Amino acid sequence: MTESAVTEAGITLITPCRGLMLPLEEVPDPVFAGGSLGPGVAIDPLESVLRAPCAGEIVRLARTRHAITLRCEEGPELLLHLGLDTVALDGEGIELLVHEGEQVSVGQTLCRFDPELLAQRALSLITPIIITEDEGWQIVPPTEDKLESGDVLMHLKPVASASSSPTESAETSGPVLEATLVLALVNGLHARPAARLRDIATAHSCRITLQHDDDTADAGSLTRLMGLGLSGGDRVSVRITGEQSEQALADVRALLEQPELSEAAPQHHNNGPWLDETAAEENDASVPGRLAGLVASPGLACGPLQPLGVSLPEIEPDARDRDAEQVALQQACKALQQQLEADIAEARGAQRSGEADIFAAHLAWLEDPDLTQRSVRLIEEGRSAAFAWRDVLDTEIKQLAASDNQLIAARASDLRDLQRRLLLKLLGQEDDPLDLPRGAIVVTDEITPSQFIALCQTDPAGLCLAGGGTTSHVAILARSRGLPCLAAMGDRLTQQAAQHEGASVILDGDHGCLELEPDEARLEQVQSVLEARRIARHEARTAADQPAVTRDGVTLEVAANVADASEAEQAYEQGADGIGLMRSEFLFMARESAPTMEEQRAVYQAAIEAMHGRPVIIRTLDIGADKALSYLPLPAVANPALGTRGVRLLNAHGGLLDDQLRALLAVDAPERLRIMVPMVTDVTDLRAVRQRLEILAAERGITRLPALGVMIEVPAAALSAASLAREADFLSIGTNDLTQYTLAMDREDAVLAGRADVLHPAVLRLIAMTVEAARGEDCWVGVCGAAAGDPLAWAALAALGVNELSVEPARVAEIKAELRSLDLSALAKALPAWLTLDEARAVRSALGDWLANSNEPKEGQS
Does the keyword Metal-binding apply (predicted)? Predict the structure, then answer.
């Protein structure tokens, strides 16, 4: 039997049992395959014992007997993990023959096991052998696939320790805090929150580690954090070391214990059904000439079919000069870092915040020390920098793509983007310009975010993807640019694209299908629809500055929902009659402390000036539930949507409210300013804010106060509308929350989102009750929820008697045009009967039919 040897040349480990050796990345478990626990190899046992691969000390035995940790003499710790998912057996079928603290010799039997029982009841008998303390050691695996007991398993060669990550170097002094949290992120610990966790560690100069089951990850490595595979509801242990550990723990709680503001999940069309992922299933993919897909971005398009092939550049596998290859990797990383920073700045300058956030996540991944350290190890083994980078990211891409969490799986495309862009930097190459005809329907397996932006420069009509999904970053970009896009269309798409290249096809992004063989009549029909839509958009935009007066002479205001002054400028340019909702919380988010009073005043003043005399409604800070501040941690509660949020939070943190009210009182032209209070339950909430406003105004000698109104977001507020209208200067209905609280359906729940419809009779009755009560008190009523821009719901809201519809800036002209074509009094007469229907679907159908049949003016009307 071969003895292990600890020499200057390193350590030789023997195989713990006869079996078949396989690389760790081929282990059918992403935690091991992705290297989250460390590097190593794996064995598929052909006998029923495990032996010590080296002499050393048993430092840890799992309670369930499936894992043994052995510290080598003068070397690292090894983890021998018997089988996969064997922890669920609770030790059944496994007999330990050693105890913790025991000194063992090389080849000593550590445990016996029943291979038949484990093979039947566990995921696999494959046994990983992991170097859990890999710093300073380089693995040289065996060259043979089949190993006998006592054969050499691997060599460990000493190497200079890789530089630690910023968070790892912080664990030098300071208090240690530990906590067990329940992950509230619905989509799990994916790229953006993982990057935020790393930022918290950096900002507070501390080390943060997360542990879930047997897996531990340092916040300095996005790769290892995501390798934990954490999903919503998982319990995770957090350990923080550093002088600012208390502040860091508060930030970590705020990040992990509250649902995030979801940007990636596709939104239903203002409570309508057209982004429902069941759309693809409702289209019969077996119909000849038609392929179904998920609607990543809606819309209708027609054009020549153009396949797009994207491949990685050719590389040399071996290094000629290892030192030179490491320098090349560093320089390429630096160059790509600068490029990504430029991409972020350009996107933000063009007011494409979603695009900027995507590249910010790519930048955080590029700075992940785990990826570069593993690449350096391969370079030290004689591989070229390009080969090393490609190989390391291939492993991570496979792990992400295999995740059951759709959002995490969708991030594989982002790593492919990072992989390809750095390879091009390493090779001194640039992407060739895309040679595509304008107006093409582009077909490809997958496309990365940077490739998508390059594609948009060719002015495509639409995009079809064999892979991807509705939560991918490309889907987000397609929606933001208004490009019709279908995803997850499968291998048939690639096969059919080759047969139909250059042919005129139709991408129906409203119904989730690609028509490959439309006849001339169908093509002419779609072209007519597209031309009519183009003309309607042009005419609507031309008349956008004019009032929205219905056919029967009723004038409604059409305002805009904005987040900052730049969006207010867009709203004015689009013809908005005012700002119906400025969400002030975006001024408070993505920073380490609350904005000063002067910072706030400047932003509010800029928004008012951008509207050139038109009214501006600014909502006071609306934090809680799905929005959190790192510097204002909230207690963990079972149901944050029903907890301290909106005005409840402001009343609990009076300093925040006072600073915001002082900033609002300090703006010029207060007659154009209206202040709106969110999450009001009854008149008590309004009185508390008005009292603070009057006290602060008196301190400054202000006698003319801005108008003060409330949001109607909960059923209690709608039922109390009469008393609220007596004391409020205006009411504004937040249909998103009112719908979800009335129906007890989370609008972010993919299963329920199709039913969480503002046109449900119960929701419409509450809105009708609110409007009627306000009318009795001569109180103005607006709607600032998503329903104001819904293709059908806006008409029902107008018929119920609201005074204003506030929509996204790009929708202002279209809504005004639709209002001008509406016979409001006729619709108001028809609406009460629909409020007695059973469900939203019935109301939506009846309303749609009515609008379709009432487009032509009645006799005597112009």
Answer: yes
Q: Is the dihedral of CA 794, 798, 802, 805 positive or negative?
A: positive
Three-class SS of 8-26: CCEEEEECCCCEEEEEHHH
pTM of the model: 0.51
Number of helices and strands in the chain (H, E)? 30, 36
Residue 11 β-bridge partners: 6, 156
Q: Look at residue 125 and give its three-state secondary structure.
A: coil
pLDDT digits (tens, 9 = 90+) for 480-502: 677 899 988 887 887 777 778 88
DSSP letters, 326-382, are: HHHHHHHHHHHHHHHHHHHHHHHHTT-HHHHHHHHHHHHHHT-HHHHHHHHHHHHTT
Rama region for 351: left / alpha / beta (φ>0; ψ in -120 to 50; rest)? left
Contact status, residue 176 vs residue 207, Cβ threshold 8 Å: no
Q: What ranges do the domains of the chain cover?
A: 6-158, 168-256, 269-308+434-534, 322-427, 543-852
What does CATH list as the number for 168-256?
3.30.1340.10
Is 784 a residue of the active site? yes
Amino acid at 546: Q
Instruction: List for the chain the helix, strand, coil content (%; round to 5).
Output: 40, 20, 40
Q: Which two tokens stand for residue 573?
A: 């340019």
Domain range 322-427, CATH class:
mainly alpha
Closest CA to 262 of 88, 32, 471: 471
How confident is residue 532, by pLDDT bands cut at 50, 70 and 90?
Answer: confident
Sign of CA dihedral 506, 507, 511, 513: positive
How long a stretch of residues is the chain? 862
Nearest partner of 11 among 43, 53, 41, 58, judged by Cα? 53
For 193-202, what is each residue's pLDDT tens digit? Answer: 776 787 788 8
Locate 382 and state its tokens. 């004689």
CATH 3.20.20.60 fits 543-852, yes or no: yes
CA distance 466 to 449: 16
**Cα torsion angle, 356, 357, 363, 366, sign:** negative
Pick the CATH number of 6-158 from 2.70.70.10, 2.170.150.70, 1.10.1040.10, 2.60.40.380: 2.70.70.10
Is-contact 275 268, C-beta < 8 A? Answer: yes
Sequential DSSP letters for 132-196: S--TTEEEE--S-SEE-TTSEEEEEEE-PPPPPPTTGGGTTSS-EEEEEEE---TT-S-HHHHHH
In the residue annotation, 760 being an active-site residue is answered as no
Are 322-427 and 543-852 in the same CATH fold? no
Q: At the top level of CATH, which class does the domain 269-308+434-534 belong to? A: alpha beta
Contact in structure between 679 and 648 (CB atoms under 8 Å): yes
End-to-end Cα separation, the chain, in angstroms = 100
In angstroms, the CA 46 to CA 201 distance is 45
Phi, psi for 310 (deg, rounded to 5):
-125, 125
Q: Which two tokens stand for residue 400?
A: 């992400």
**pLDDT tens digits along 270-320:** 333 333 333 333 334 445 678 888 877 878 999 999 888 766 778 888 888
Active-site residue, from 81, 362, 473, 760: 473
Q: Are 369 and 163 in contact (CB under 8 A)?
A: yes
